[in-house]
Amino acid sequence: MSTVTEDCGLRERKKRETRSAIHRAALDLVEEKGYAAVTTDAIAARAGVSARTFFNYYPSKDAAVLGTRPEDLDQVAARIETQPADETPLDCLRVAILDLLAPSTLDRALRAQRRRVLLGEPALAPAMIGNNIRVENALTAALERRLGVAPGAALEPRLTVAASLAAVRACIEHHHGSSGGRDGRDLNASIERAFDLLAAGLR
């Protein structure tokens, strides 16, 4: 491995670590103090970064708590568009979503904490709704581009995306509601089954 490749790998790992530290700090502070009492400066201080660094990773307090960034959504959209030409729209979404939720990227404790915070803070509801809309719009646009369909010209891309996201949410709720012992692989297996059911028409 070349020095350049090693340096790039170290930089990417450092970025992931910093991003995770900011997200964890945001969740910890909201659990401790309540959403309204938390500021971006406080999150940055808890994560050990400057305010400027905070905004290099997240555009707002809401985004830091949710743990989402536009770049992440762009990557998922790109994954949809670059799937082999013979893949169905539903299978493209399956691959992109499973990549995003790969077991190696899941932290069960962090996911559980984020769920507690989001369910326990009504003030975050608008941010959650807005994030869900952005996700649906971005994936719909990616599917439209893949299919060569003008924006909004056909129902199928948006319906496929909406059904896929609803299936994933159902799997996550099922995953959290089931008793003990479930990990990221269990969640992925549930999502795979959900997509199989969608493909079969939920007969």
TrEMBL record:
One example GO MF annotation: DNA-binding transcription factor activity
UniProt cross-references to InterPro entries, sorted A to Z: Homeodomain-like_sf, HTH-type_TetR-like_transc_reg, HTH_TetR, MftR_C
PROSITE patterns in UniProt: HTH_TETR_2
DNA-binding region: 39-58
Domain of life, per lineage: Bacteria
Annotated Gene3D superfamilies: Homeodomain-like, Tetracycline Repressor, domain 2
Pfam families: TetR_C_14, TetR_N
Spans through the membrane: none
Domain HTH tetR-type stretches: 16-76
UniProt KW DNA-binding keyword: yes
Keywords for the protein's UniProt record, in alphabetical order: DNA-binding, Transcription, Transcription regulation
PANTHER family with a match to the protein in the record: HTH-TYPE TRANSCRIPTIONAL REGULATOR RUTR, MYCOFACTOCIN BIOSYNTHESIS TRANSCRIPTIONAL REGULATOR MFTR-RELATED
Protein's recorded name: TetR family transcriptional regulator
Species: Intrasporangium oryzae NRRL B-24470
